[in-house]
Amino acid sequence: MVPKPAQYILRFDDLCPTVSQRRWQRLQSLIEEFGIRPILGIIPDNRNPTLDISEPDPQFWERMRTLEARGATIAVHGYQHRSESPEGGFLSLHKRSEFAGVPEATQRKWIHLGLEILRSHGLNPRLWIAPRHGFDWATLDALCAEGITALSDGFARVPIMRGGVTWIPQQLWEPMEKSKGLWTICIHPNTAANDLIEELREFLRQHAAQFTSVDRVLAEFDATHVTLTELMCERMELWRTQFVRYRKQRALKQRALKQRALRQRAMQEQGLQAKQ
Residue 85 gets which letter from DSSP? Predict the structure, then answer.
């Protein structure tokens, strides 16, 4: 059944010792202020240099353990957050990914190593988050083999069981009021602008009572019984998201081409002036 009024989950991605400490501290204060039990997407062995924002935080793992003890759900967010595979996976939101298209044996090895790393730091990862939303049937099989039976992704309004794994939907990247359904808001601390953080604070002030947790969702929803209407809604929401992303990418490409043309014109004019 689709919940009404809407329920929300708050999720944070790209967490690792080099996450932006300034932004993460502001976001963590919101977790504490409003008593939120979020999903913490932790990269086990980050090798993506674009995510090295701050110097490594020696207290990072202790902070994660404290948040888990207070009700947060630990999610293994890929392995090294590289995007070397030219496959987008089920959702095709990006052209490259870390896991989609990779042989199942390799995927299972990476998942196993990621889980071991998080567990070695005293954490109990129970959820999977694919970097760049890139995963496939081989990922689901590997997750089941490693004992992970839930992930955060997809565009339904309720959890759905696929490939032996419960998909807890994640459809939003900023606070947005909804009338019904289960909605996960994904925030990337490294790129969370001040306006977004303040917008999130105000949203939590108004809707904190509607925020739920992974434990409650898994206990309250039957992911094995989903109506055809919900499957159609999921497909429509995915198409809408893909179209919006396409338009944004096209606009960025056109802007880059325009700026390039302006630079070339400026260089040509400078060359003519030099000849004169």
Answer: B
